[in-house]
């Protein structure tokens, strides 16, 4: 009988622990992404997420060939700043100002043949020189920067790191993640942060968890980015032209969408075309 009692108590404790975790998750699930209104779980305190981002960003820049004082570098800063001003104006006027608290916007052009760009939490943006032949003009670059800024505004990094903490069992019932800042140099936390910004993670989790969810986030960033570039005075139709150039360049070489963390070019273009009428409402020449 004593053993049975212990088992019952253990089961009861597990149920209370699970219930506490569910309540914790629900409490933090009330966050909504601007414009799309999608609900998301954000468990990592913003100041700690930004501290991790700033550290990783500086480390990257210290080991990269940053391009300064060229016409292209000035264009990256000019376009980035226009989008920043548009985003801040919208967020401040629509009750989302808290999402930008602690942001320290930076835009850097880096010498690299990769056709890519990225943005860490807090507005830490990098554009690789390899993408400029495809952007071709400021509106093309605005497509890229609008998309990357949207990842930061939608807090996709925090969302993915929160999911990683849950998946790895690093949360306890009734506790919010408060130790990230002091433990941000541990391999475990570093791995989760790398996963949150798009790298790392077990193969099965990437194929069936991180990557499909990343594709949803990519599509959401396309949506927000299209509107943000329009708010900044760039013609949203240029986004279709940019992705059409990208599709042509990658014809026959792009991986199957299932094995990619981005939507296929065809899907991306079709989705953007559907979103154009809404984006054009925000466009002011």
From TrEMBL:
Binds 1 zinc ion per subunit. Residues 82-274 form the Peptidase M48 domain. GO terms for biological process: proteolysis involved in protein catabolic process. CDD domains: M48C_Oma1_like. InterPro entries: Mito/Outer_Membr_Metalloprot (IPR051156), Peptidase_M48 (IPR001915). Its cofactor is Zn(2+). Keywords: Hydrolase, Metal-binding, Metalloprotease, Protease, Zinc. GO terms for molecular function: metal ion binding; metalloendopeptidase activity. GO terms for cellular component: membrane. Belongs to the peptidase M48 family. This is Peptidase M48 Ste24p. It comes from Fibrella aestuarina BUZ 2. The lineage of its organism: Bacteria, Pseudomonadati, Bacteroidota, Cytophagia, Cytophagales.
